[in-house]
Amino acid sequence: MDHSLAPGHRHVEAAPRQRRRRPDGVGLALKLFTAVVLLALYLPVAVLVVFSFNDNIVTTLPLRSFTLDWYRKAFSNEDMLRAAANSLYVGVVATALTLVVGTAAAFAIDRTEFPGKTLFRRLVVLPLVLPGIITGISMLNLFRMMGMNLSLQTVILGHATALISVVVTQVYARLLRVNRRIEEASSDLGARPWQTFLYVVLPNIRSALIGSALICFTLSFDEIPVTFFLTGRENTLPMYIYSTLRKGITPEINAIGSVIVAVSLVLILLSVRLLGEDRKGGG
């Protein structure tokens, strides 16, 4: 029997919940604050890009006309291209090293128990929060103590040390969402441990690996503080730009800077998308 229709029963409908509305002044203030922050962050980048097309060699307003000559000169500068190739080499090798070591560390944290595990989990993210100058000086002292000459290889080790926490945190977060029953089923069906990893675990953490690799490469390619202390005679692209700026800002530097901004933006957006899809799929 429906008691709501019984005689004498008073049917009361639940009042809809009303969301608390912020005062109009607070909402407007938040929007203005956000706009100011975004303007402060991206206005210098916009100025860099605009002046890379400036026909005038002097970086000043007003703009005379637009040209692509500075991009042509930048991509015909042999020293700059050599520095870019060095940055590419350092970024690729350092990223590969961080993936191998970082993934192994993430598996150790997720799958094994060992003394000092909690401390290790906290220390592994320390290089990410330390200023680059501290990491650079520390690595420099270590290499000097070991008698190693500074070169691109020492830069690679420095970048890998600074960025390994990116891979550890991302892969570990993804491993926490992997269904362990799938791995158990693979083992029950006769798969060997390496087969289970290759065909079961790896596809589940693939997006986290790719996303963290893109972030690591982008940060390595643009890194200056650690590179400054660990590089030898060979320059990377950021160090070449830094040394060239001592003579003043030129449209050629603006042009190569605009290219770096564009490439970094694409890589970051791609990594964010991959890691976002990974979180949705793992949820």
Question: Your description of this structure?
Answer:
- By secondary structure, the chain is mostly helical.
- The chain has one domain (77-282): MetI-like (MetI-like fold, Orthogonal Bundle), CATH 1.10.3720.10.
- The protein has twelve helices and no strands.
- Helix 8 (180-188) packs antiparallel against helix 9.
- It starts with 23 loop residues before the first helix and ends with a helix.
Topology overview:
Layout (H helix, E strand, L loop, with lengths): L23 H28 L17 H6 L3 H34 L5 H7 L2 H4 L2 H15 L5 H24 L4 H9 L4 H29 L3 H6 L6 H8 L6 H32 L1
* Annotated CATH homologous superfamily: MetI-like
Number of strands: 0
Binned strand content: under 5%
Question: Structural class from helices and strands?
Answer: mainly alpha
CATH architecture identity: Orthogonal Bundle
Task: Summarize the structure in short.
This protein is mostly helical and 283 residues long.
Features:
283 residues, MetI-like fold, 12 helices, 71% helix, disordered N terminus
